[in-house]
Amino acid sequence: METHIALKPEIIDTLVGVPISNSLVLSVLAGLFLVAVGFLGVRVLRAVPSKIQNAVELVIESILNFMAGVLGSESNAKKFFPLVATLFLFILFNNWIGVLPGTGSVEFRGEPLFRAANSDLNTTLALALISVIAIQFYGIQKLGLLRHLSKFFVFTKGPIQFFVGILELIAEFAKILSFSFRLFGNVFAGEVLLLIVMGLAPFLAPVPFFGLELFVGFIQALVFAMLTLIFLKIATEEVSH
Predict the structure, then answer these.
(1) What is the domain extent for residue 108?
(2) Which residue among 60, 118, 174, 237 sits deepest, i.e. has the most Cβ atoms within 10 Å of its Cβ?
(3) Domain assignment of residue 87, yes or no
């Protein structure tokens, strides 16, 4: 089988004139899976928990406890939980689904039907925008618009602090590139590595690399969520005067 490596996702069809890429297909499937698990977890809630309920509660409690440890506040952890947990789980399941055997080999109209969603820069850029916009939103919500902007536009502490504030503003926009390219680069590099190894030795050799990519997929999801959490903590801190 010919090894196919492309930076751009393949367009497999259109829907109402909107192009549908193979990375979008996996992204939607991962989203539907998480929604289904969430609904199933809610529907089976019992005083004596079932195995599914235990699993869902374990995941929720683990993420919440981790966030509370980072933030030092359980109330803030609960406030940011929907955003951070959704980003973590969505990225994690996309990364794991993307390395499953057959992801790049099933074809539709001559193009691969599935592609790891986070190996598409459009997906990681969208996730980065969601993260950075949410950080600014929570910062404004906690401090107010003027106090939040005063972190970046400092007019009362001299020229050095003024330029430091401008650099901080530039850094806020740089987060978009940092988030998106870090996730994209690691996932795409892993996808290329697997394709090359399977092309050279398609039987036993790829097995340890699949395990490695599952681990890397978890780490990348954790890094993205943790950085979002840390930036949320910074954005909602009081401005010192």
Answers:
(1) 11-235
(2) 118
(3) yes
**113: which residues sit within 8 A by CB, 6+ positions away?**
12, 22, 25, 106, 107
Percent of the chain scoring above 70 in pLDDT: 90
**Does residue 101 form part of some domain?**
yes
What is the residue whose two structure tokens read 């850029």?
Answer: 125
26, 98 in Cβ contact below 8 A? yes
Can you give the pTM of this predicted structure?
A: 0.85
The structure tokens listed for 100 are 């499953």
- Say if residues 93 and 34 touch (Cβ distance below 8 Å): yes
Confidence of residue 58 (pLDDT cuts 50, 70, 90): confident
Q: Where are the beta strands (DSSP E) in 84-187?
A: 107-108, 111-112
**Tokens, residue 8:** 């751009």
Domain count, the chain: 1
Task: Evaluate whether residue 5 is within a structural domain.
Answer: no
- Which DSSP string corresponds to 57-81? HHHHHHHHHHHHHHHS-HHHHHHHH
Q: What angle do CA 235, 237, 241 make, to 5 degrees?
A: 115
Residue 121 lies in a domain: yes
Report the candidate in 168, 170, 216, 171 with the shortest Cα–Cα distance to residue 192.
216
Q: How crowded is the C-beta side of 198, counted as CA atoms within 13 Å?
A: 21
Coil vs helix vs strand at 165: helix
**pLDDT tops 90 at residue 57:** no
